[in-house]
Amino acid sequence: MAERDLEGKPWDLWGTYLPERQWGTVREDYSADGDAWRSFPHDHARSRAYRWGEDGLLGLCDRQCRLCFSLALWNGVDPILKERPFGVANGEGNHGEDLKDYFFHLANTPTHSFVRGLYKYPQQRFPYEQLLVENRARGREQAEFELVETGIFAEGRYFDVFVEVAKAAPDDLAIRVRAINRGPDPAPLHLLPTLWLRNTWSWGYPDEHEMPMGLEGDVLVAQPGGDLGRYDLHCRESGPWWFTDNETNQQRLFGQPNGRPFQKDGFHRHLIEGEAGAINPAQRGTKAARWLQRTLEPGEEWGVALRLRGPNALAAEPFGPAFEALFAAREREWQQFFDSQVPGLPEEERRIHTAAAAGLLWSKKYYGWSVLRWLSGDPTAPPPPAQRWQSPNRQWQRLHAQDVISMPDGWEYPYFCQWDLMFHAVAFASFDPATAKHQCTLLRSPHYTAPNAQTPAYEWALSDPNPPIGAWAAMRIFQIDRKNREEADLGFLRAALRKLILEYGWWANRNDRSGDNVFEGGFLGLDNIAVFDRRFPLADGSRIEQCDGTAWMASLSLNLLTISVELSREEPDYAELCERFVYDFVQLALTLNTPGNRGYVNWDQEDGFYYDVIKRPDGSTEFLRTRSVSGLIPLLAVASFDVDTVKRLPVLEVTRSLAWFLRERTSHGWLVENLGRWRNNRLLFSLVPEERLLRICRRLFDEEEFLSPYGIRALSKVYGEHPYTFTQGHESQTLAYSPADSPVAMFGGNSNWRGPVWMPINFLLIEALQKYGHYYDDTLLVEFPTRSGQWYTLWEVSLLLEQRLVNLFRRGPDGARPFQGPEPLFRDDPHWRDLLLFHEYFHGDNGSGLGASHQTGWTAMVAKMVQQLNRYPEPQARPAPPP
Q1: Which of 198, 174, 179 is nearest to 189 (CA)?
Q2: Alpha carbon distance 564, 352 (integer Å)
Q3: What 3-state DSSP class applies to 87?
Q4: What is the pLDDT of residue 485?
Q5: pTM of the prediction?
Q6: Phi and psi of 494, rounded to 5°?
Q7: Looking at residue 40, what DSSP letter applies?
Q8: Rounded to an integer, what distance in angstroms lies between the CA atom of residue 11 and that of residue 484?
Q9: How far apart are CA 243 and CA 266, in angstroms?
Q10: What is the C-alpha to C-alpha distance for residues 193 and 77, in angstroms, rounded to an integer?
Q11: Mind listing the pLDDT tens digit for each residue in 317-343?
Q12: Residue 594: exposed, middle, or buried by beta-carbon count in 10 A (0-12, 13-18, 19+)?
């Protein structure tokens, strides 16, 4: 890592950057109706060249995705050569798109110097049709039909296929494939280690040329272009090399003659369909594989060794004793590195921590897309449909991506998502701060941002506003990194602030539509959280004023203030910025909390909770009384400052510094009481006054409302027995507590904020509680759980919440890990029970993993919790405080 970060040695040149899915993405969609799933379905993936990227199974590529390596498998009965994981598309699943294969990310390092992945490959015919039929037939109220339910893994009739990589140098990769027959009978297996070039030459640009691979003796030679130079692939095991071209099979897909004799699906057609002319007998092409075949006895392990070497690789023998010694050394370094991050972890905690880190590192994937070229079309391709120029994404012609980005999930969400990425970046900070800083600021680079400084959301809707947590992420990365270095990286913080201030201006000018500091926000990342779709006005013109919209903006102001305060320690000029953010935060706090002509904007004094408000065209308003995490977002806007900082920056003492502001408002008393409060020699900035904080906490820690055995639910459980219905004009909608998958199709229907536990919001709430705890210390106690008679400080409650969240992955007394659900195979089988997946969200009652199964980006925040719990003793309950 030091050589990568300080000496410019490209140890990150190669990595597990190959996504698991490229088909069904917006960037590969060239249809008139914008239906990406139908435009490029799974059935096309084996036969159609991708325009913007590649995909594969536990694969590798360079950071420009020019040269790719992955496995292809065949068990002798499958109808399709297994080259990529399978899942149902958005319209095929009862809760949207969903992966229907089992693979696991077991090990990885920040430089990808040691990598291990595992795929569970069935020995029987893969039930593609059964998975499609069963999932299409199920309603939204039913669970998804999973591969394990077909019985295909019964009696262990599958292969464990491990892919391992150890780097000897930045461009010298030792690769080991191990296949183990877990079944009771002999079983055949075909392995095709495959190397191919991403197709950059078919689109008509003069700077890209086709350079087919060929053989020198028994060594496969590739010239991928760019600045990579020559690469050689060695294979220790004997077998023929097969060649084809990474070109579209026009005849199969579109009934048109093929312009080239060999196509992308050549290996499938040759091996499975017996088509002799499908591979190139001249042994040249842009896609090549070694064909290896063996019948494995029960329990037998088959090992295959490969070596991929670039121009700067060592000249030593590719295999032999040094090959195995390299793997042993790199694996030992991987273990020692993560042991050093959190010394002394028990075995179970260590398993969770390293698996979360591995999944997070595997989430770094290549993402390529030029929106202008996508809109305009390529010189050799038909012009895209004219409708494309009417899509919202047309405003993003400056977006030109060619980067390795931490994706939410390499199969279900194989693209960047702005607010997800901020959580990923903070998760990286504990063990790879350089990557954390890069990922945190990447989307605010000039080739991503719009001319008005908006940051793109995600490729399905680049203009959607996401929760503005970039300042929070930058500050947390700075703070985490500072603990591990001699000097604080103020340069990073300054650079981040410059970009964030530009975006801050966009937020202030774009989303305060009414001009009264009430921010509607739009999407704001919580999908179906509300009874109505909050992105759009209702049919009668009514709009929803979101309590979380204004709260997110206040939180952004406060995080920018915290950054400015930090920078002002060394550079007093930043004090002027502090004044701006103090003023903005105070104004937003007043907007959200003080009475106006129509009462409190979002605070319901009767219920003791923040609610969205519906604002009708005639000016009348009404609360949408649904207790959800959107009403908890005001808790996130909190910070406190010590005496020395306030002396250095008097503007922080708002009752004095903003006296002119106060004289013009009738809310002076409220402001003095709630924003000018000292305790334990700290000055508090909080969007939520103490009395309201305590009222919210009573609901937050109530197991009949928000508190589940595994964290904070996204919606109060009270709506299970008492659903909420609201009618406005001719529109009527009902919201009910739904602890599992989404009951509605809003936002594609594959995410659900109406009851499950979400790791990112839990993490933000935990950090907020710790900030309150730092200010109040033991002068403020809360009951946890509500009505339990057990009282704790807010800091102690934060640790108890972390325990509940980590328990999602711990093995319980019955041997089960809650995230695995009720499946006996996952609980009892020694080859499954310790394999961890980090899902998108979790069942609000039993903790089962739901949504995307490899969403290790933000769910990897659990590693930070494991680290913190290891440092602090378990909290002990206190007696009730005096009235």
Answers
A1: 179
A2: 36
A3: strand
A4: 85
A5: 0.96
A6: -65, -45
A7: S
A8: 21
A9: 8
A10: 19
A11: 999 999 999 999 999 999 999 999 999
A12: middle
